From TrEMBL:
It holds the Pfam family Ank_2. Residues 1-19 form the signal peptide. This is Ankyrin repeat domain-containing protein. The keyword Protease does not apply.
Length: 220
């Protein structure tokens, strides 16, 4: 009778461990990272969850944490060896996403742990280009200091300087970004696919301060 009870208990335990709907360690890690629960992330990694496990969209736990700008959870994952360059199904990586969204603390963590400065997003752009477009001043500064190519051209035939002018609002943030790019020796005459230069775009939009900065840099 005792043996029968023991066997029955083992069967129940096995069924419970593999019951439909039960989240695996990797799935739990994804959920904890997305929620920014650094303590749970650390605990699950200690239990054997894969640090670079992928979800159905090919996102890693680190990318999920980066989406929410969950710095502490991201730090735990990076310290555990998470790949800061692992891309999802739409070609975002923790490094590229942090740069594009201005998540400066996570960006700095990725830069300190092997970020590929030449990696590009689905538009063929480096992290610097969307950072410039969206007016993330300190992010642009960090990426320039890290050595990202300031004249990289994406599939739209735009550089960071062109995007700062074309897609920016001409306000204080984009003025400062244009200053940073010019100071970093960005080519002020590198035109778009139609041959229109940053200066010409600034004039068309009435961005007087940007026009003055570019003219002083020798733009035509």
């Amino acid at each position: 009778m005792k043996r029968l009870y023991t066997a029955f208990a083992l069967v129940i335990a096995m069924f419970t461990a593999t019951a439909p709907g039960a989240a695996s360690l990797d799935e739990q890690l994804q959920q904890a990272a997305a929620a920014g629960d650094a303590a749970a992330v650390r605990d699950l990694l200690g239990k054997g969850a894969a640090v670079d496990a992928r979800d159905s969209a090919r996102r890693t736990p680190l990318l999920r944490a980066t989406h929410g700008n969950h710095v502490d959870a991201a730090r735990v994952l990076i310290d555990a060896g998470a790949d800061v360059n692992a891309k999802d199904a739409i070609q975002d990586s923790p490094y590229l996403y942090a740069g594009a969204r201005g998540h400066l603390d996570i960006l700095r963590l990725t830069l300190a742990h092997g970020a590929d400065l030449t990696s590009t997003n689905r538009y063929g752009g480096t992290a610097l280009i969307p950072a410039a477009e969206r007016g993330h001043i300190e992010t642009v500064r960090a990426l320039i200091d890290a050595g990202v190519d300031v004249d990289h051209v994406n599939r739209l035939h735009w550089t960071a300087l062109l995007e700062a002018v074309i897609l920016g609002d001409g306000g204080a943030r984009h003025v400062e970004i244009v200053k940073l790019l010019v100071a970093a020796k960005a080519d002020a005459n590198l035109a778009d696919g139609d041959g229109v230069t940053p200066l010409q775009h600034a004039r068309r939009r009435g961005y007087g301060e940007i026009e003055r900065i570019l003219s002083a840099a020798g733009a035509r």
